[in-house]
Amino acid sequence: MTESSLMRAFDGPLTRDLLLSPGGFGLGQVPAKSQPDAVTTSVCGYCSTGCSLNLHLKEGEAISLSPNTNYPVNHGMACPKGWEALTVLDAPDRATTPLLRDAGGKLKPVDWNTALQTFVTRMQGIQSRHGDDSIAFISTGQMATEEMAFLGALAKFGMGMKHGDGNTRQCMATAVVAYKQAFGFDAPPYTYADFEESDTIVLVGSNLCLAHPIMWERVMRNKHKPEIIVIDPRRTETAMAATLHLPLAPKSDMDLFYGIAHILIERGWIDREFIDAHTTGFDAFAEFVLPFTIEKVVAATGLSAESIERFATLIHEGKRVSFWWTMGVNQSHQGVRTAQSLINLALMTGNIGKPGTGANSITGQCNAMGSRLFSNTTGLLGGHDFANADHRAKVAGILGIDEARIPREASWAYHEILEGVLKGKIRGLWIICTNPAHSWINQRLCHDILDRVEFLVVQDMYHTTETAQRAHLVLPAAGWGEKDGTFINSERRLGVFKKVRRAPGQALSDFSIFRLIADAWGCGKMFEKWDSPEAVFQILKQLSAGQPCDITGIEDYRMIEACGGIQWPLSERGTGNAERGVESDVVHSALRASRSALQERRLFEDGRFYHPDGRAKFLFEAPRPMPEPASTKYPLVLLTGRGTASQWHTQTRTSKSEVLRKLYPQRLYVEINPTDARALSITPNEIVTVESQRGHVTAQAFLTPSISVGQVFIPMHESNANQLTDAVFDPYSKQPSYKSCAVRVTRIGT
Ligand SMILES: Nc1nc2c(c(=O)[nH]1)N[C@H]1C(S)=C(S)[C@@H](COP(=O)(O)OP(=O)(O)OC[C@H]3O[C@@H](n4cnc5c(=O)[nH]c(N)nc54)[C@H](O)[C@@H]3O)O[C@H]1N2
Ligand SMILES: Nc1nc2c(c(=O)[nH]1)N[C@H]1C(S)=C(S)[C@@H](COP(=O)(O)OP(=O)(O)OC[C@H]3O[C@@H](n4cnc5c(=O)[nH]c(N)nc54)[C@H](O)[C@@H]3O)O[C@H]1N2
Ligand code: SF4
Ligand SMILES: [Mo]
């Protein structure tokens, strides 16, 4: 590694200074009381809402922040995580140098040259002994789109890997497959204005109040006094604010939605015109739902006949009905078909493509949408398909690479990569911006697998994560606020985030790390043009050309900012519908000229979907029983999920803020219904054991009627929640079913 290529990695003048004085500087050296001398904006790096934040700068460094009042997403609002986004950058456990495990098994600081050489020697060594595809990567929905694309292209086209997946598998894979099969492309159709324009909002398996607090604020701004129907086994914060809560039995959503479809069809409460003009498969679907009588649905869901009737009536009476779903649907053994059973309701009632409607998957991480289109994992760059020869030729042409370097099939899914380790097929693993040793399902097995990897590289902001602690090599990464790039939020809006802080010590942006690895690997030439995030953005535009996610009409980062973020599609010819005969150049120039009414755009306004026949598909399948139902030995069903608005996933970031720490419980708790607690002689706040077939945890008993009898809930944020979960996957999306397994709860000492 030459000095100059290393210098190139430390992008921007601030980091150049830093290189001259290793050790860097952190917040401590910025006088707390200093007055800002400039303001810039950046989209938040936690959740998929994509709020814009004003960053108050002093000599180019952010010293504080406030929500942006002039942005169509958040209108001046931010949740506690957003407010505290800068604080967590200063944590003492930031990875500030590469760390290499020494002969004694200890992680010891090394310089970048040693780190890069070790990376290349070890990974190439494994490849020469076991084949190119014996190394793999696992990435994320939390890096810039430009970084994801770089990683995916480098790993697969440069380093010859075949397998690489992301934590979006844990999260959005179900929605991706459900949309692709139903609409012909992974295309969430909505815009956040739909939260305000609906008169009937159906939230399924979504605790919007705390998982997407600013989207929830958009619901609160709805002036139509909407009916809010929450479908969740738990009486969550969101359910408490609903006009109708349906606490159905876990994983009985499909039965419910098929039953509702049955009622709607029987009563003629459907939009026959829309169905005939824009869909296929309805007649077979209508026949399929016939046996889903109200009695059957009552039995399957545990809901009353009246509440099911009421739900159907509200859908019928609503003029603008929107259907939203999140992890209560996606994380399931039958997630794809469940999502589609909801999509079917929107299609059969014509609630799509119009204001306040839609079959709307709410995304999780800040850039899960970027990863869905550009991570080069299960899909080829730009929403393309590895198995499609035309797509491979197009991508190879744009990138100027030999087509033979592009794999002809999609990667193994996340769990297949991990199983590949057990089978000795995967021996080198590079984990970037995700913490599977905490977040992956069936943790004991996951730890065992990670410990077997011959060479494990972890690239993270913090060296203390459960996964980094298992690594042979830790690469120190800059985080949000310390680098540049774009994210794509839940409503398909591209937003820009910026470098407003120097990364600590020798930490580098993921982008710079990929650049250095490309050079050290010997494939730097292939990525000659990939020399800055914005240069890569221009390449991504070309890759998107002609796709439903076409962004060729976006000039540059400045245009994205000037427009208050830009939703895809925006092709050179208009809002992407031009080719489909509805948009005009006038529309595009209006958007380009100013922040226009086009700030909010939804898909399918012309009723045309992305299948070759332009129609959406009704897809359905008989519900399957829960893989691990409650039993005599394990009589309770465990649900897991988000605990508070102030905790983010595995807490590597949020636990570093004193303010956030005050806003959430300090230890693992388990929600138990008082009736169950009485039967088990458990008293409030008592420490209990929660045990499944796979492991056990101790937790504080939180007695609450918000959880139904026969169920318990544990938040995912403490490191051991996944000791309990069962490695079961949806057959189509291969997404883990985190939200149901059988457990028992016992008093300590019994
Ligand atoms: N504060 C905070 N916000 C976050 C995150 C975070 O970690 N912290 N993470 C972000 C990410 S990546 C994601 S993916 C989203 C997740 O956002 P959500 O999906 O809203 O959050 P969860 O709590 O995982 O799950 C939602 C609900 O699904 C319910 N559920 C469980 N089983 C079923 C079922 O069978 N049917 C139905 N209908 N419901 C069921 C649970 O009771 C739970 O209330 O949040 C994002 N926002
Ligand atoms: N039981 C249970 N388990 C679950 C879920 C559940 O509902 N229940 N939900 C699942 C879902 S939906 C999700 S999305 C996953 C999330 O699971 P993870 O992805 O494992 O969780 P995070 O804590 O977000 O991990 C992100 C990691 O990236 C690091 N990081 C942050 N920014 C950067 C950066 O810019 N560069 C680099 N290199 N590193 C960075 C952070 O320090 C952190 O270690 O968890 C899943 N696990
Ligand atoms: S709602 Fe999401 S995007 Fe908005 S400030 Fe909070 S974490 Fe950030
Ligand atoms: Mo997620």
Structure description:
With 750 residues, the chain is of the alpha/beta class. Among the domains are: 32-90, N-terminal domain of TfIIb, CATH 2.20.25; 189-361, Dimethylsulfoxide Reductase, domain 2; 636-747, Barwin-like endoglucanases (Beta Barrel), CATH 2.40.40.20. The protein is 32% helix and 16% strand. The protein has a seven-stranded mixed β-sheet, with helices on one face. The protein is globular and about 70 Å long. The relative contact order is 0.16.
Largest sheet: 7 strands, mixed
CATH architecture of the domain at 189-361: 3-Layer(aba) Sandwich
- Report the end-to-end length measured between terminal Cα atoms: 61 Å
CATH topology name of the domain at 189-361: Dimethylsulfoxide Reductase, domain 2
Using brief descriptors, characterize the structure shown.
750 residues, alpha/beta, N-terminal domain of TfIIb, Dimethylsulfoxide Reductase, domain 2, Barwin-like endoglucanases, 7-stranded mixed sheet, 6-stranded mixed barrel, 28 helices, 26 strands, binds ligand MGD, binds iron/sulfur cluster
